[in-house]
Amino acid sequence: MSTTKKIAGAALAAALGVTTLSACGGGDAKDKTAGTSDAPKSKTVTLVSHDSFNATDTVLKEFEQQSGYTVKVLKSGDAGAALNQEILTKGSPRGDVFFGVDNTLLSRALDNGIFTPYEAKGLADVKPEYVLDQEHRVTPVDSGDICVNYDKAYFADKKIAPPQTLDDLVKPEYKNLLVVENAATSSPGLGFMLASVGKYGEEGWKDYWSKLKANGVEVVDGWEQAYNERFSGSAGGKKAKGDRPLVVSYASSPPVEVLYGEPQPAEAPTGVSTGTCFRQVEFAGLLKGAKNEEGGKALVDFLISKKFQEDMPLQMFVNPVTKDAALPELFTKHGVVVDKPENVTPEAIAKNREQWVKAWTALVVK
Q1: Which 3 state secondary structure label does DSSP give 192?
Q2: For the chain, does the N or the C end have fewer beta carbons within 10 angstroms?
Q3: Could you tell me how far CA 286 lies from the centroid of its own chain?
Q4: Distance from the Cα of residue 339 to its chain's centroid
């Protein structure tokens, strides 16, 4: 998993490692609860996440000023690796809140009981379709769509309409044009495989991949290689002389190409095939055994606040999940709206993910 996440722009923008942001006024990491107990009360709240978590310093500092807590962000690799570590340390977590488990791994996290139920303040403002756990062990924070992206210049030069649906991708005119990520090793690769499961069902998805293979689909290990080396439409792919004008990436990738373009283009050089998408939803949860449970609750509340939700798109290139959060102009001008992404329930993913991935690997890679 990347995540959320999990996400193309964040791979370019986010720093790795452990980040600590000090609250105004400084002070010790521990305080005493006034008038009630001599027990120390931590003033640090630790967010465990995948590497793609990012937020504007001023936004986090505003939370620190208002709450009195210092935020420490512990980045732990991709979402799958980060989740594995929390499962292994269940009951004695490395932090107070975990961010980055998505709907492809949600049931695994819930079945392992790593979260304490908490109904976040402001949850009523979250769009109900994103609230997948009615016990409130996790809180939705963002969404993003895994979709095929296309190189606009290639299709204009060839005078071929770019594909728009999964069905289109198996047509002869798109032979040897698509590069995808390995479903066993990559978050977008897994999401794209799940899109085919959602579209064609248990009886039809493997036949679809047989057709894709016959039509020359190329499989690489991860998003970085697919997008920045093999895809002809990205800035990185152009430098690497990539020759595949179709790639599995994100619906937010075109705004990223604009934001980081040198010089910045007036129009995104890439487009999105909106009929090929699978929607990821990322969640945060209060870790069971958290040392600072009250600080963790405050941090979960903050993650669905309007301030954080509106900061998030340009930091992690994902969409807010709250009803009142506005998207930045970069997204509204250069992004796309995916009205009907493919969907597979977390329960179905939990039950079938391993066997689906094994079948996909045997069919497409071996």
Answers
A1: helix
A2: C
A3: 19
A4: 18
Please, what's the b/e burial string for 199-238 (b: 16 or more CB within 10 A of its CB; e: otherwise)?
bbeeeebbebbeebeebebebbebbebbbbbbbbbbbbbe
| Residue from 96, 142, 134 nearest 115 by CA | 96
The two three-digit tokens of residue 45, written as one number: 């709240």
Structure tokens at 242: 């990539």
Distant-in-sequence, close-in-space partners of 311: CB < 8 Å, separation ≥ 6: 55, 56, 59
Give the C-alpha separation, 129 to 188, whole Å. Answer: 21
Going by the DSSP 8-state scheme, the letter that residue 129 receives in this structure is G
Q: Name residue, tokens 């932090």.
A: 95
Per-residue pLDDT tens over the stretch 60-115:
999 999 999 999 999 987 777 888 899 999 999 999 999 999 998 898 899 999 99
Are the CB atoms for 197 and 205 separated by under 8 Å?
yes
Residue with tokens 């190189």: 151
Q: What CA–CA distances, in Å, run from 30 to 45, 68, 75?
A: 11, 11, 23
Q: How many alpha carbons lie under 13 Å from residue 128 in its C-beta half-sphere?
A: 0
Q: What are 352's two structure tokens? A: 């079938």
Please write the tens of the pLDDT for every residue from 196-206.
Answer: 999 999 989 99
Sequence-distant (6+) residues with CB within 8 A of 188 are 2, 146, 181, 223, 226, 248, 249, 250
Measure the CA–CA gap between 89 and 86, rounded to whole angstroms.
Answer: 5
Q: Encoding tokens for residue 1?
A: 């998993």
Q: Can you list the pairs that 168-176 forms with residues at least 24 positions away whose Cβ atoms lie under 8 Å?
A: 168/273, 168/275, 169/212, 169/215, 169/217, 169/246, 169/276, 170/208, 170/211, 170/212, 170/214, 170/215, 171/215, 172/215, 174/215, 174/246, 175/215, 175/216, 176/215, 176/216, 176/218
